[in-house]
């Protein structure tokens, strides 16, 4: 009996690691990278169940893990849809793991924020900055610039998601590199920043660290405005969002229909729902910038930092950003981690 139980436990663990484990109740649509603590996917998946009658379980992968799993499962896909930072969406098309689908309201998505054939398309976007739990700073001033974080008083207070695998991690690295004088052809300013930051013992999780900022374990996190505003207004955290003085970037998040998805018609229903008025309003209520601007009400917009602050947040050439990703990853792994 002990041997049988052990074998069953090992089999279950292997399925979970592979991303192939299914919930106890059968899922109608499998979405990779739909974590409940990120971008309020919890509310979105509840709404999908209520309005479409479709069960879509949570999934806690990040963008890099999602792409790697899709590639590994290419011959026999498990997922139906996937959510990724835009650079990973571009890679997913190149790897042949997403299929063309022109979602509802496709024509309202600006050029450059969608694949022309619909292999990926933006659903919302956020601005990179510092998600700061003021109460956890222990009297240290709120940082205002990337270079502030290199000061000795911020030792042990700073966190960022792994830029070699997480979309927000690479977005933060790109933001720092460009703000400090780099380009997509010159990654050295960003690499040197992370090398210098290493002296301050940063915390580097691989998955979303929202709860760790709320608890004060990570007082300063490179993250999006929407996570900070959610913490401030919904979880009543004494948190502030800082747009660094040197500048930053905005980053779109995209969806794609998995090529040869097990449940393609149901998957298309879910993708369409994300672009409806109600679906886009759910993103706006979670303090994301919906790709259809009409979903952003004046009441929600008033909770964001002043428009003058956002003038330091720029869109970039996301295709060039994607092209530079492997080079940055390789240098980060070789020189920083």
Annotation keywords:
alpha/beta; disordered N terminus; 337 residues; single chain; 10-stranded mixed beta sheet
General description of the model:
The chain is 39% helix and 14% strand. It is of the alpha/beta class and 337 residues long. Strands 1, 2, 3, 4, 5, 6, 7, 8, 9 and 10 form a ten-stranded mixed β-sheet that branches. Helix 3 packs parallel to helix 4 and helix 5 packs across helix 6. The longest helix has 17 residues. It starts with a helix and ends with a helix.
List the helices and strands and how they pair.
Blueprint: H1 2-18, E1 31-32, H2 41-52, H3 63-72, E2 81-85, H4 86-94, E3 98-99, E4 121-133, E5 158-159, H5 167-179, H6 188-198, H7 210-214, E6 220-224, H8 225-233, E7 239-242, E8 248-258, H9 264-274, H10 277-285, E9 289-290, H11 298-301, H12 307-310, E10 313-314, H13 318-323, H14 325-335
Parallel strand pairs: 1-2, 5-6, 8-10
Antiparallel strand pairs: 2-8, 3-8, 4-6, 4-7, 4-8, 4-9
Helix pairs in contact: 3-4, 5-6
């Amino acid at each position: 009996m002990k041997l049988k139980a052990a074998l069953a436990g090992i089999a279950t663990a292997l399925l979970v690691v592979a991303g192939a484990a299914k919930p106890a109740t059968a899922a109608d649509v499998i979405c990779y990278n739909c974590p409940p603590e990120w971008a309020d996917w919890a509310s979105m998946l509840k709404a999908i169940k209520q309005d479409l009658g479709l069960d879509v379980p949570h999934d806690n992968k990040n963008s890099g893990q999602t792409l790697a799993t899709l590639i590994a499962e290419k011959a026999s896909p498990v997922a139906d849809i996937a959510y990724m930072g835009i650079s990973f969406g571009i890679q997913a098309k190149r790897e042949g793991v997403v299929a063309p689908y022109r979602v509802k309201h496709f024509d309202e998505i600006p050029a450059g924020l969608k694949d022309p054939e619909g292999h990926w398309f933006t659903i919302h976007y956020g601005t990179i900055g510092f998600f700061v739990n003021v109460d956890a700073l222990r009297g240290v001033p709120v940082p205002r610039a990337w270079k502030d974080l290199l000061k000795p008083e911020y030792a042990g207070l700073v966190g960022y998601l792994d830029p070699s695998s997480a979309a927000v991690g690479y977005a933060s690295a790109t933001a720092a590199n460009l703000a400090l004088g780099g380009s997509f052809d010159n990654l050295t300013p960003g690499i040197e920043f992370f090398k210098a930051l290493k002296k301050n013992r940063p915390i580097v999780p691989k998955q979303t660290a929202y709860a760790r900022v709320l608890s004060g374990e990570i007082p300063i996190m490179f993250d999006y405005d929407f996570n900070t505003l959610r913490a401030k207004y919904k979880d009543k955290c004494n948190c502030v969002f800082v747009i660094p003085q040197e500048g930053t970037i905005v980053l779109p998040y995209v969806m794609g229909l998995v090529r040869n998805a097990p449940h393609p018609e149901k998957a298309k229903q879910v993708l369409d729902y994300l672009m409806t008025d109600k679906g886009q309003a759910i993103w706006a209520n979670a303090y994301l910038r919906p790709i259809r601007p009409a979903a952003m009400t004046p009441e929600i917009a008033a909770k964001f930092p002043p428009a003058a602050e956002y003038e330091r947040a720029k869109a970039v050439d996301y295709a060039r950003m994607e092209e530079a990703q492997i080079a940055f990853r390789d240098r980060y792994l070789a020189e920083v981690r």
